Amino acid sequence: MWIKEAANGLGLTVEVTKHLCHRVSPFQTIDIYDTVKTGRMMLLDGVIQLSEWDEFCYQEMMAHVPLMAHPAPENVLVIGGGDGGVLREVAKHSCVRRIDQCEIDEAVIQCSKEFLPSMACGYDDPRVHTFIGDGSEFIREHEAEYDVIIVDSTDPAGPGEPLFGEDFYRAMKRALRPGGVIASQSESIFLLPEIVRRLLKIAGTVFTHYGYGSILVPTYPTGMIGVCAASDARDVRVPVREPDAELSAKLRYYTPEIHRSCFTAPKFALAMTKGLNDE
Ligand code: SAM
Fold first, then answer.
1. Which of 181, 154, 220, 212 is nearest to 76 (CA)?
2. Which of 55, 103, 112 has most ligand 1 atoms within 8 Å of its beta carbon, as the pocket-test mutant?
3. pLDDT tens digits for 127-140?
4. Which residues contact 245 (CB under 8 A, 6 or more apart)?
5. Is the terminal CB of the chain with fewer CB neighbours within 10 Å at N or C?
6. What are the pLDDT digits (tens) for 164-202?
7. Within a 10 A sphere around the Cβ of 211, how many other Cβ atoms?
């Protein structure tokens, strides 16, 4: 039995063994499958969100790039990320004292807790406080509160749409404490170049320093996705801390070297990803 992802003119075909879950929430459809090659997979509105096989690539880079670009992050906000994988990665940092999460769809969290324990374990950490609601509204109620904000959202269609606008980036800036860093899911330079371009323009307008980092994720169409990191305090493309031995032993993708190198774009994408503030 094969399932076909179809979005933005391209998709992936995956051999599955079992359809474990189909739910319709007020925001989206949620499907979870067991597959032959890529472990359990979650799809929202038919779009692949993660597979047990390669989710570590995305979750580690979304979390550790902004956390390692901050000298001492204590308060962290995750917007979206209902599966819990980014929470799991943030919780690996002993310097972090509080992890707030704002996820719009409680059903994603419930499905993950039921079927994806290796990611939902992120919810077990006592520093995690989950709020159910729209991240674009939650962020407006918080001022100078967070050292790091991570936006682990769906694509800019449906509930994720407001998380890709300039108003939201300005609200994230207000919610940061001095020295704060943001990171957001920033799509693929192959699949959605116009969205990458627009997001980086917004990031460069709102923040002094920013960059687009490429992440290898085989089960996303085009095999990659981007993380846009930004800050007013320092160049986010360079880590200011290194993982200690305990953290390093828990990582499979993130290294200080890949932090630096992921921000180097291939030639065709240089103009698309070049920092407005690089000159
Ligand atoms: N890694 C994934 C990807 O890019 O394919 C994203 C995974 S995570 C499951 C995305 C989460 O963002 C979903 O659980 C979704 O419900 C949540 N989300 C979408 N729009 C949101 C919003 N406006 N506020 C808060 N959470 C939102």
1. 181
2. 103
3. 999 999 999 999 99
4. none
5. C
6. 999 999 999 999 999 999 999 999 999 999 999 999 999
7. 27
* CA 104 – ligand 1 centroid, Å: 8
CATH of domain 2-51: 2.30.140.10
| pTM of the complete model | 0.97
Mutate to test the pocket of ligand 1, among 104, 119, 185, 228 (most ligand atoms within 8 A of CB): 104
Distances, alpha carbon 72 to alpha carbons 41, 82, 88, 93, in Å: 34, 25, 18, 10
Question: Residue 106 — φ and ψ, nearest 5°?
Answer: -60, -30
Q: Which CATH number fits domain 55-278: 3.40.50.300, 3.40.50.150, 3.10.450.50, 3.60.40.10?
A: 3.40.50.150
DSSP-derived letter for residue 149 is E
Tell how far the Cα of 278 is from the centroid of ligand 1, in angstroms.
30
